[in-house]
């Protein structure tokens, strides 16, 4: 399960970097694992943890947890967005899910 059957997601709302600029890459990194099918935890949310964290407001762990549950595979996520708006986070999650599902079917 380690990296073979999992997703690594990095998303940022910053534009192209100029020479010498410092991107917000991996200011946070979270991992989430789905509950094992048929176990007593199968109805529970995915287990998740922040591996790197700058602040508690980062959406990486929440998005990783939701995607791991929906996709039933481990998800590593580093989501760097300036908006703390819940609607924006939900839109990011929905768009990522659609892209992953579309890619996995092709």
Largest sheet: 4 strands, mixed
Poorly predicted sequence stretches spanning 5 or more consecutive residues: none
Strand proportion, as a percent range, falls in 15-25%
Class derived from helix and strand content: alpha+beta
- The arrangement of helices and strands along the chain is EEEHEH
If you compute it from the alpha carbons, what radius of gyration comes out, rounded to the nearest whole angstrom?
Answer: 14 Å
Strand tally is 4
The spatial strand order of the largest sheet comes to: 1-4-2-3
Shape: globular
Tally of alpha and pi helices: 2
Helical proportion, percent range: 25-40%
Q: What value does the average pLDDT take? A: 80
Distance separating the two termini:
22 Å
